[in-house]
Design brief:
homodimer; 871 residues; alpha/beta; Dna Ligase, domain 1; Acyl-CoA Binding Protein; D-amino Acid Aminotransferase, Chain A, domain 1; eight-stranded parallel beta barrel; 34 helices; 33 strands; nucleotide-binding (chains A, B); magnesium (chains A, B)
Chain lengths: 871, 871
């Protein structure tokens, strides 16, 4: 027997199946699969993609294939009792492309092939709708002339426009059947090549589909998605069915479960005596699917049976298109149904409980983005609005509020109404106002700028780097494209998309559903990575623990110093002229820090808490502008000139690379001493309360072993003294941030002393790329647009570059200390792609902001499951 | 025969030789070696260091060794005709430690051992100098009691002080022989343990020497210099000789060549009828060695013969101590003579020409520091002064001048007198004034701060990070430790040492000697590394070429923009609102840049010239302060508010990591276009003049291949267009700086497009360490003091950290492009230790500031010769 190239489907048997996707393409294989399931699909056949490249090269099909195609057409005529080109009961078919994977770059569908001047009369008779039939015919002519014969569409459009002018109407819909008849007559002049012979039409269409594999759009699409050139496309030829042939006909779309809520019930719409296009066009209002039960009970019953079968077979919610022609149900297409995040989660959990899928599959079906969506308010998608400006989506969720430009105003105004803080950028001074605001919008800064980091920490929506808005603080307005927005004007921001809207949009409130909690519990069983949180206060830690955090990976002690009552003591410390003065001020800070740590330890009872010693340069705690300096000088009782000298002497050209982190702790050992004392005293005191504490003290900005040794010596000395004083023994670790390239490079040396590593990948990205996160807004958008970088490296870890340093540090660190505990506490700890990398290179945990903990739990499970699949 | 532990020397035969340094120590081996050469050394013996650890453990010598020592003493008595403890003609010896390498941490010498109450009379008789003899005796008692018996020195000092009070005198020298007699009497009360038996004295001293191996100072010294604990020290016992026994006695020090000039003639001093100490004490004025010829012609003749022999044997200038006792010449010590840089070079070249050493040896004997010293004025070392402050030695040499605080004042005042520019830090605005000043002194900044880099480029002395000086610009003064220095006051700065002096010190002017040029030519034959220079102008390039530069490794185009007539156009470009405006301004810059390039190409005829496209962020070209902004706004004819907005919008939190380098070239392609055009037009035009040009266009701050591709595309397009227009074909390369960690990591990718690499190790150190060079003055001094870092990583490349990235980039780059040309153009290109590393990892060239080119040539030769030795 010769090799076969044409595969029939429909009519209760199929030559192919889902397994033959390689040669039948996705669509062809699916039609065969449905046939095999006993689902009534309009019969047709698929021409193998193996012929595609050969056709492109030779411009014709082998003779044996032509014979196969003709045979397949005869089969369709037999099955349907219609004939190709018949003026009374014509066989009409659609011709579609269909590659192994869906490729939007390829040819559109040609419908109603088989219509000609004679057979169009048969369609008129069958549907009783002259206008419809002639519209179908003229579309076939236009489409065919365009894709097969290469005659420009515009010429046909000109004829239609001319007719509309003659009739004084505006839309196609206003043209009558007679008008279309006239238009088709005029089409003949330019579309002379349009063949009246249906078989000739068919051969032309098949050739056009094969050739569409090489359109520039398709080639570009394959290049981007890395699809092999030699796959080719298959061609699907399928009998047309009509839902507009009378009262026993209908057409509709139905989901096997509710795609909005996930509820297990059939959900969909249909239109009686109508064609599929009518549903899309929205001219008639469709009826709920339940009504079909009453109108066409047999067809409904069969539909329900088929839906059940399809869902069970495909093991997922199906989105099914159907047509009922003269009481006979045809399934035109089934595909996986799109759904909301909430529905996706409910469906996955329900299906796993029903035994339809495994728990592993349920976990893998939910994306981290689904979980993210669930945790933030969203703009109700039913409202279509154009944004006034766009920026970087720094922290997801949506918020509505009145514009304010100063943190103080946020506090004042925020008492009476919701506010959005709009600034060029935010700083530590603004945190009070940020706590009150619903969300933040900044004109500068990148994904890890101050505003972005604080927003994600607080779980509030935030847009940064929104270049288009120009703020005038004095006038209390911002302008965008010439329009002016005043303080107090209401705006809506969408931090998920990075879009700013005028006025108040309706929001959908978030909810962590019961099913989501179930799903995450299942996910927990599959993951190897632990998930910790970055939290600086007891309440933050509490939120994170409720979200499933298994410890704190980063507690930033300096955030504690920015509070109103503390910054005073901090500033005294900085301004002090000698060690004695500094120690006196530090003594005031000690009890406050201790209380903070105690609150955190209590919440995290039994779980490890990583506390980082002072990180930012000291000038961050002082005012910069003259007015601020004068006010502070009055407060402190010193001369403002003197204070200005101090502020100036602390100023740095590049604070990111300046006198900070362990460099401070080394030059001012009394700061590290105070912090170590506060941590260990807190640990001793809560231990006496019965709390189980596991403090991990972390030294930041280490670039060299000797720096770490210097700081560890201080910590250990103070810890031993303190424990002795309390008579309590605590297990504590002293480790380091790896956030400087040289630390990763010399990790083997650092690990001789460090008991754990935590990657600060924000700073490692800054130094490794030479990118200041506060300044990249000037060029990063351009880089992303021109694809100079595939993504923002502060959002998703740059694996070839920064990832190399991370992996090098892990290898070298563990060469020295085999069981070195290693985590990541940069912003990437909450990014799924980065989490997968962390899993792969063997980290012990990731740490992220509280609101990303559920996402990280799921992403960690995915990473583990996928790496098992690969093995 | 039993193993021997005591090795005799002197008396015309020695048991050891220079080869036995391991057990005899350096001093013992040298004394044996001189004996073997027939040089008259006072006879003595060395006790092997093999006994040292055993002695420390057991507290005594083996009996067999005691017997050997006694035998050796008997030999000395025979040779000298004196007897241990003899009241008429006593044998006196010295006892010294002597390990395999010189260890300043160990015991001082004990002299005149063998003196006691009886034999001291013999010494009085022999020298006829009661005071001298008794002084020798009391010193022996004090020293012995201290190091052998552990009696505090202070007790003896108290007795001497008491005597001085009784006599109403102030200095030891004012005490008479009778006074010393009385003092020795009083010493007996506390120094009862001092043995009268010379053999007992000797055994005590030998034990003390062995034990001195384990003093805390010696242990610390070994730890620092990594000297093994188990080496131990040997003990040298040697007959004392006396140069003060009458008119036929003398003592002196002599060099085989002039240590100041290198001239080949005996150079030295002596004192007739005197002891070595008298020369050191400076009480009597020594005579020139030539006079000895007249006074003691036989001894002089023998001395000259011996000096010749010693220099030939040791193949280097010798610094020889001698004593003539009763007409008999004794050589007490010979060692390699210390010399000035100028002398060192002349001596090496002369000796090679004489055939005494090879040219290779001559090259290896000169250190890069010698060459450096030659190229800069120095403070005449005869003036002893205390510095008023110290900072980082940023650029070598010394300068004297009046203090000025502003660049403009430097220009004004500099017309009439030499000035030193003193500032907190310098910036591009100050360059005009810096050109006029003799040197710079800044209170802030590190070794690669603006002042430091400019100073090295200009070859002027500079001190940076001199924290101690507090500048008050308003009052035009600086204060240091409470003392105030006014504008116009004269200071002297020593940039080689980093020291600031009050007033005018005498300087020695530099000179590149004929011999130095010869030596460097020899060095050139041995090196593999090429040496290029960093030069931005024709005159700089000319200086460098005269110093032997083989091309330009870094021409910073932006330095050309800071000139008064150009910054205007540059500012117009920055302030322009759109591409058109920017292009208009760039058109003005193009002819200026072109002329600069032409001047450089002409100077570098036949040699490669690497030109870097715009590197610094644009805000560096704009004023920062309000007054400057207002002035510029007036000049530009725009509103100062508007200009302030532009300045603010360009401001960056961390300019080092900001919108600069290729990031500018990518967002403003017209800048790269203009620069490429200026380079290629210049190249075409000088080619037509007959100049051979080899331009290498270098893209800065690349972190990712796509950035480089973007810029290369522009350069190649413009180059091709331009060459076509001129009808000239030029060989040019397009390459990149590797100055960002990610560039080194992804060097394999970047090398697919880059035709050469040049390491910008300044910036690579900044990013790799996370150190801002402008800000490190706050902690680096502390780091160096506490040995947290072994050296300033901006001065000498950090090999374990930054070196790893450099080597990684070389390996990965050459994996892709086997013959990739790779150089270094960071400040490290002029640092010998870093040059050795560059040689080792296979770089093609180093590039440094013009004044360091000779140093780099020598260092490159050393690297090649040493690596051959190792192989």
């Amino acid at each position: 027997m010769a090799k076969r190239y044409v595969y029939n489907f429909g009519g209760k048997r199929a030559d192919g199946s889902a397994k033959k996707k390689d040669i039948l393409g996705g669509k062809g294989a699916n039609l065969a699969e449905m046939t095999n399931l006993g689902v009534p699909v309009p019969p047709g056949f698929t021409i193998s993609s193996e012929l595609c490249l050969d056709y492109i090269r030779r411009g014709r099909l082998p003779k044996s294939v032509l014979a196969e195609v003709k045979k397949a057409i005869r089969r369709l005529e037999r099955l349907t009792g219609r004939r190709f080109g018949d003026p009374e009961n014509p066989l009409l078919v659609s011709v579609r492309s269909g590659a192994r994977v869906s490729m939007p770059g390829m040819m559109d569908t040609i419908l109603n092939l088989g219509l000609n001047d004679r057979s169009v009369k048969g369609l008129i008779a069958k549907t009783g709708d002259k206008r419809f039939a002639l519209d179908c015919y003229r579309r076939l002519i236009q489409m065919y002339c365009d894709v097969v014969l290469g005659i420009p569409r515009s010429k046909f459009e000109a004829i239609i426009d001319a007719r509309k002018k003659e009739k004084g109407v505006k839309f196609d819909i206003d043209l009558s059947g007679d008008d279309w008849e006239e238009i088709i007559r005029r089409f003949r002049r330019i579309g002379q090549g349009f063949p009246q012979d249906p078989e000739e039409q068919l051969m032309g269409a098949i050739g056009a589909v094969f050739k569409s594999w090489n359109t520039p759009r398709a080639i570009e699409y394959r290049r981007i998605y890395d699809i092999p050139e030699d796959w080719g496309t298959a061609v699907n030829v399928q009998t047309m069915v009509f839902g507009n042939t009378g009262p026993k006909s209908a057409t509709g779309v139905v989901f096997t479960r509710d795609p909005a809520t996930g509820e297990k019930k059939i959900y969909g719409e249909f239109l009686p005596n109508a064609q599929g296009e009518d549903v899309v066009a929205g001219i008639r209002t469709p009826q709920k699917i339940d009504d079909l039960k009453r109108i066409l009970p047999d067809a409904y019953k069969e539909l329900v049976k088929i839906l059940k079968k399809l869902e069970r077979h495909y093991r997922d919610v199906q989105d099914v298109e159907f047509t009922i022609e003269e009481g006979k149900l045809w399934i035109l297409q089934t595909r996986v149904g799109k759904r909301t995040a909430r529905a996706a989660i409910k469906i996955a959990v329900d299906m796993a409980k029903e035994g339809l899928i495994t728990k592993k599959e349920a976990v893998l079906r939910i994306t981290p983005q689904d979980i993210d969506q669930l945790l933030h308010p969203m703009i109700d998608p039913s409202q279509k609005r154009t944004p006034i400006a766009s920026g970087l989506p720094a922290s997801p969720g949506a918020a509505v509020g009145a514009i304010v430009f100063e943190a103080e105003d946020a506090i004042k105004l925020g008492r009476s109404r919701p506010v959005i803080l709009v600034r060029d950028e935010t700083s530590a001074d603004d945190v009070g106002g940020m706590k009150v605001a619903q969300g933040f919008l900044t004109a500068r800064g990148g994904m890890t700028s101050h505003a972005a980091v604080v927003a994600r920490g607080m779980g509030k929506p935030c847009i940064v780097g929104c270049d288009a808005i120009k703020i005038d603080y004095k006038k209390r307005v911002f302008s965008v494209d010439g329009r002016v927005f005043h303080e107090g004007d209401v705006i809506t921001i969408d931090g998920t998309e990075g879009k700013v809207f005028e006025g108040r949009l309706k929001l959908i409130e978030p909810r962590m559903t019961k099913e989501a909690q179930t799903l995450l519990k299942w996910a927990d069983r599959f993951r190897r990575l632990k998930v910790r949180t970055n939290a600086d206060t007891g309440p933050d830690a509490k939120v994170a623990r409720e979200f499933g955090a298994e410890g704190i990976g980063l507690c930033r002690t300096e955030h504690m110093f920015f509070a109103k009552d503390r910054i005073q003591a901090m500033r005294e410390m900085i301004i002090a002229k000698d060690e004695k003065g500094r120690k006196r001020a530090l003594e005031k800070l000690l009890p406050m820090q201790k209380e903070d740590f105690k609150a955190i330890f209590r919440v995290m009872d039994g779980l490890p808490v990583t506390i980082r010693t002072l990180d930012p340069p000291l000038h961050e705690f002082l005012p910069r502008e003259r007015e601020g300096i004068e006010a502070l000088a009055r407060e402190m009782g010193i001369k403002s000139d003197e204070l200005e000298l101090i502020v100036n002497s602390l100023a740095e050209a590049n604070p990111m690379l300046g006198h900070r982190g362990c460099r401070l702790g080394i030059t001012y050992p009394e700061i590290t001493e105070m912090q170590a004392r506060a941590i260990i005293e807190a640990a001793c005191e809560v231990t006496k309360e019965g709390v189980k504490v596991l403090p991990e003290i972390m030294i930041p900005v280490v670039a060299e072993l000797n720096e770490f040794k210097n700081q560890k010596e201080i910590v250990v000395r103070i810890a031993e003294e303190t424990m002795k004083r309390y008579g309590v023994r605590i297990r504590y670790l002293v480790g380091t941030m790896i956030e400087i390239p040289r630390a990763a490079i010399t990790a083997d040396q650092i690990a001789t002393e460090a008991e754990f590593f935590s990657y600060g990948t924000n700073d490692l990205t800054q130094t490794g790329f030479g990118f200041s996160r506060d300044d990249i807004a000037k060029f990063l958008p351009y880089y992303l647009e021109r694809k100079i970088l595939p993504h923002d490296p502060f959002q998703s870890l740059d694996i070839p570059g920064i990832g190399f340093l991370v992996e090098l540090g892990v290898k070298r660190g563990r060469k020295t200390r085999r069981n070195l505990k290693i985590g990541i506490c940069g912003e990437h700890g909450g990014d799924p792609r980065s989490i997968e990398f962390c899993h792969r290179i063997g980290l012990d945990y990731v740490s992220c902001s509280p609101y990303r903990v559920p996402i990280a739990r799921l992403a960690a499970a995915h990473a583990a499951l996928r790496s098992r699949q690969r093995r």
